[in-house]
Amino acid sequence: MILLVAVFMLFVVGAMAALSIDIVTLYTARSEAQLAADAGALAGARVLANSGVTSNRTAANAKGLATMIATQVASQNMVGGRTLNPVAAAGEIAVSFSDSNPAFNTDPHVTVQTQRTDLPTFFARIWGRTVNTVVASATAEAYNPSGSNAANSGPATPVAPLCVKPWLLPNLDPTAASATGASSIFDRTSGAITNAGLVGQEWPSATPGLNPDGIYSLCGGNPCTNTVLPAPGGYYPGAIDATDFPVPTQGLPSCSATFNSYQLAVAGCVSTPISCGSTATVNIDVSASYAANRDLNTVTAAECLIHYSGAAGDSDSIDPADLQPPFQFLGGNQNPVASAVGNAVMVSDSVVTIPVIDTPGSPPPAPSNPVTVIGFLQVFLNPSAIKTLPYTLGLQSSNEIPATIINMAGCGTSATGQPIFGNGASPVAVRLISPP
Q1: Which of 177, 197, 248, 225 is nearest to 396 (CA)?
Q2: What is the DSSP string of 326-354?
Q3: What is the pLDDT of residues 391-430, one digit of tens each?
Q4: Which residues are CB-neighbours of 344 under 8 A, at least 6 positions away?
Q5: CA 249 to CA 164: how far, in whole Å?
Q6: Residue 373 and residue 16: Cα distance in Å, rounded?
Q7: How far apart are CA 366 and CA 179, in angstroms?
Q8: Helix axis angle, 24-51 to 59-75, nearest 10°
Q9: Does pTM surpass 0.70?
Q10: CA angle 20, 24, 29 (to 5 degrees)
């Protein structure tokens, strides 16, 4: 009996060891594979959110870059004691794409599957099993509310980006020559993008019949009132106060030491999220208490923000080989990251988010306070490496900033629900949508 019990206990102990060690090892590797898939999917979706593909139905052009980044991020995670093989032939990382709304292509999805088929076993070898397989999958979405109403799926969920600049842009095509006959940027009710072809367009333009001016204040440098009529590409200054655009106090660049409150809001990051949609409207007022020289102050603050010191090539630029989405950015000569100078960069201080306010009518009348934010433009300031600031070709002011539209996100006045936060200053939020 003692011998029989001893032999029996050998198998019992072996089985318990297999359960307590091999199963725990298997579940740990499965969790690690899930983390790798989550990280890869979010990284891929972030590429789409920052490249402009959520606005103009060209997600296919960004799949190569998103696949590369998602694969790199996933392969940096340890699964079962080693990193995953990023080579596609190994089959350990697979990236695929789908669209939640193929007709409008505004919410692209990135799915990353990770697996290891050679996870070694320990005590389970007594049953002839030498390796195990773990598989995990994650799907992330670059959420652009502009497409939610386009398919009549109900009101959009609003978004609330951070670091929004205090430039309230009228809902007019900024590349148009005048407000008369200018198309809108967003449908004011649904937030749907009126003209996806605006992505990649720049103002000012040297083309006759288009806007010859850059970004400038509609107040003409004087104290702003509500009698100034909207114009394409010009902005109303938001109120710099605790309610609307609080003055940044942290993370300010050293070049902002002598700036006033307005300039700090431009050169720094306003930490209060700005929401769009009727139920999440921040009471943003057109400032009526600012001294003269607003355009000069704007250019000075923008130069500090984008690391411009007075010479062409100082600030980051859009790669001239990629003037259509997905955009590629090149580090400027004054980029604070030394390794980024002259090389491709994924993020840039030259990319800013501007709120678009509701200005109904054709031509639209002057807005009344408080204004309603119905969407956001993501623009690249001074996109060409060969241009210098201030831009002086324009007619309205000698202090203007050229800008290129790289993405659009509209909510409209019908947006309801809790705003979606995330992805920093980008109005296109990135989120995991796969179940845990």
Answers
A1: 177
A2: SP-EEB-TT-SSGGGBTSEES--TTEEEE
A3: 665 555 578 899 999 888 888 888 888 888 766 778 888 8
A4: 319, 328, 329, 330, 331
A5: 15
A6: 62
A7: 12
A8: 150
A9: yes
A10: 160
Tokens 């902005």 identify what position?
Answer: 235
The DSSP call for residue 19 is I
Q: How far apart are CA 361 and CA 358, in angstroms?
A: 10
CA atoms within 13 A of residue 108's CA, in its CB half-sphere: 27
Compute CA distances 402 → 48, 96, 425, whole Å: 24, 36, 20
Burial class (CB in 10 A: 0-12, 13-18, 19+), 181: exposed
Which segments of 220-307 does DSSP mark as H helices, in order?
Answer: 261-267, 294-305
DSSP, res 56: T
Q: 348 burial class (0-12, 13-18, 19+ CB within 10 angstroms)?
A: buried
> Which phi and psi (to 5°) does residue 353 adopt?
-110, 130
And the tokens for 29? 């590797």
Structure tokens at 113: 């599957």
Helix (H, G, I), strand (E, B) or coil at 413: coil
DSSP assignment, residue 255?
G
Whether the Cβ atoms of residue 118 and residue 81 lie closer than 8 Å to each other: no
Determine the pLDDT at residue 36.
94
Whether omega for the bond prior to residue 212 falls within 30 degrees of 0, making it cis, is: no
In this prediction, the residues of the chain whose per-residue pLDDT falls under 70 are 14-15, 17-19, 52, 55-61, 99-106, 123-129, 147-154, 220-227, 278-283, 287-292, 391-397, 422-423, 435-436
Residue 37's pLDDT is what?
94
pLDDT score at 370: 83
Tokens of 393: 């070709």
Q: Where are the domains of the chain?
A: 2-143, 144-428
Cis peptide before 370 (omega within 30 of 0): yes
**E strands present in 50-92:** 78-79, 82-83
- Tokens representing 293 are 């020289």
